[in-house]
Amino acid sequence: MIYRVVVFQVASWGLMLSASSADMKAYWCNEVFAKLCSMARDMSVKVRVEAFNGLAKMEIVSKDFLLQSLSKRVLGNGKQRETMDQITSEQFTMLATSVAGALMHGLEDEFFEVRKSACQSLHRLTILNVEFAREALDLLMDMLNDDSVVVRLQALETMHHMAINGCLKLQEKHLHMFLGALLDNSREVRCAVRKILKIVKLGDLAMFKSSIDRLLENLDSYLQDEADVFSAFSHLGRNHKKFVGYIVKETFEEVEAAFEGNVEFKSARIAALLIICISAPLFNEYLGIIPPVLFSYAVTLLGRIYHAFSDIMDKDTLLAYLCEKSRPPSDSVPDINHGDGEQQLSLIEGDTPKCASNGVVDSKIGSQIMKEQKELTSYQVEHHQSEYSEVTVYINYILAKFPDMWQMIETGFTNEVLRSLRCLKEELASLKFDSLESRDALAFTLLYFRIIKLLVEVWEHLLPAKGLRSHGLGELEFKLGKLDRRIKELMSKFVGFSGEEELNILELILVTYALRLCKVETICVNLTFKRLASIYSCLESLLKERPVLPSNFVVELGKLLHECQTASINGASCSPLQFDKCLKLFSLKKFVFHGTIRQLKTELSISNNDSLHPFPFVSGLPVSVPCEITLHNIISKCKLWLKMSLDDGLVQYVFLDLDHLEDSGDVRSLVFVAPFYRTPKAHSFTLKVCISLECLFENVCPVQRYGGPKYELVPLCKEKQVYFSNVNKD
Fold first, then answer.
1. What is the DSSP pairing of strand 615-617 with strand 601-605?
2. In this predicted model, what pLDDT tens digit does every residue of 105-124 receive, in sequence order?
3. Can you tell me the distance from the alpha carbon of 403 to that of 586, in angstroms, rounded to the nearest whole number?
4. pLDDT at 215
5. Is the domain of 443 the same as that of 315?
6. Residue span of the structural domain in which 317 resides
7. pTM across the whole model
8. Which of 11, 101, 230, 397 could form a disulfide with 308 if both were Cys (CB 3.0 to 4.6 A apart)?
9. 136 within domain boundaries
C-alpha cells in the first residue's frame, strides 16, 4: 500500500499548493504532472497504475507538457514560450525529461491494467487542450486493436467523454479503425462505438456514408444488436440532416424497389434506411426532400422501428407523426429527382446541435400530433397490422434468419451461430407480454430456439473438421436425448399448428432420429427406427393433403425406408452411412409463425404444506395428496397423468379423467385428491408431484407400464414437493 500512499500524496500535495496561490497555480501543477509522469515509468506495475490514476485528477497542465507526454523526444525550448515565462530553461529541461513520452509509454505497457489506467487518464487531460486532444486521439484509435477487451472499452469510454465535451474530432484516417470496432467480438465494445456515433459530429459526407455502411454490416453480422443499431441510425439522421439530403434519392430507390418486390426484401436493412430518413425532419415542421411515401412505408414496420425513437416519443406518438408526414403538402408534391445535393439542401435550415437527440419534438408538431392521434391510430393499425400482431412479426423476423445461420453451420462456423443464438435467446427471454396469446408465442419460440441450439451442437459431430476431435459416448448420447425430449415437448405441449408448421416440426423429428441412427454408438436402434418410420408416415400423409414438395432430405429418407421395408430388415441392419448420406441433404427451412399456436400447460398447487408443516402419514398405509389444478388450453383428447415419485426411484402414476369436468373454456380448474400407496418406512419423506402429458403423436410404445401411460410423458408444470412426517416416530 506504500506505493498508493506516495502517489496519492504527490497528487494531493500538488492540488493543495495550486489552490494556495493563483499566480503559482500553473507552476505547481506542472511540477506535480512531471512527478507523476516520472512515476509512470516505475518498475512496479501498481505504482504505474496509481501514477496514471493520479494524472486523471489533474486540473491544470501547460500545453507544452501535455504535448511532451505524447512524445518520447524532448521538444526544443524555442517552442515552449508559455512555460518558459514561468521557469528557467534548465528547470524546463528537467521537467520535460520527466514528462517525455509518459502517456505513450503507458499506452504501450505490457500490462493491460497500466494501459487501461493510461487511457482513463486521458479522460481528464484531453479536455484541457484541443491540440493535445487531437494528437491523443491518434493513440486512442490504436488502442482499439488492443488484445484486452477492458482496454478497448476504456479507450472508447474516453472517446465518448471527449465527444460529450466537444473535443472529439474524427478524421478520415480514424474511420477504418473506429468503425471497424462495430464488428468486434465483444458486444460491449460494439455498443460503446454506437454510443459515440449517437453524439459525434461527422465532418463530411464520406464519413457519414462510411458510418452507415459499417452500421449495416454490424446489423447483418450481429442480429442481437438490432435495437441499438436502429437507435444509432435515428441519432445519425437527427444530427446530420444535410447529409441525409444527399443520400435520400438513392435510399428512396432502394426502399421502393424492396417494397415493390423488385429486389430481395432485407427487412433489417430497409428498416434501418427508413429510420435514418424519417428521423431527419423530427425537429423541423417541413423537410421537403423526404418523400411522404417513405413515412408510409415506415408505418408498416412500426413494431420494428419504434424503439429507435423511444428516447423522445412513445409508440403512439411515432405512429401519429408518421401518418402526418405521409400526407403530401397541399401546395405541391416534392420531387426527389429535382437536382443534386446542393439544390436539395436549400429546404433545410441547418443541422441540429450534436446533443439535439436529447431534446423534444417541436411543440407545434407535438400538439398537432396529439390532436390527431386518436383518429389516426385506429385506422392505421387496422390497415397495416391487422394480419399479424407485433409479437408475431418480431418472432417471424428472428426465425427468418435461421436458414442463413444453417449455411454458416455447414461451413463450420458453429461457434459464431451458437453465440448469436444465445444472445437472441437472452433478448427473447427478457421480453414481457400481457396477453396469453403473446406469452404462448414467446414460449413456443424459446423452445424452438433451444431445439435449434441443440441441433447445432449435435451437428458438430458430423462435420469433417470436428470429426477429428474425441467425443465421448456420454456427451453425444446426452445431447441426442435432450434434443429428442425438447422436440417431443414442442410437438406435444403446443396445439393449433398450421400444416406448414407441422411439416417443419415433423422434419426436425426425422432429423433427430436420423442423427441417432447414423451414429453407431447410439443404443436402442430398433426402437429409434420404428419411431422414424412412424413419423415419416405422418409427414407423408400431410404431404398428400397439401400441394407442397418435400425437401431433398425427406425424399432420400423415404427411399431408404422403402428399401428397408422391401428387404424386411430392421434399423440395426441399415448402415449408418446411409443415414449420413440423407443428413447431408438436410437444410433448415424457414419457419413462418402464423400466430395461432396455443400452449398446453397446467398449474399445480398443494395447500397448507411445506417442510415446516408436513402432512402426517403411517408407514405402509396410503396417503392422500390434495391437488389444486388449473388447466390451460387442455382439450378432451389429451391424456394427463399425475406422476408421483420418491428419491429412491419409485414412481406411481394416477390418470386424470377430464371427461367429468363440468367447466368449459380455455382455462379450467379442479380439485383432485390423489392416493399414494407405497409409503416408505421412515420418519419422514418427500414426494415429488408433477402433471405430465402423454405423447400420442408417435404410434410406438417404448415401454409397457402396468397401470400407467403407454407412451412417453412430457411435463406440463414445475415439479412440486409434498412433505410427510410419520405420526409414530418412536
1. unpaired
2. 899 888 999 999 999 999 88
3. 11
4. 95
5. no
6. 220-385
7. 0.51
8. 230
9. no
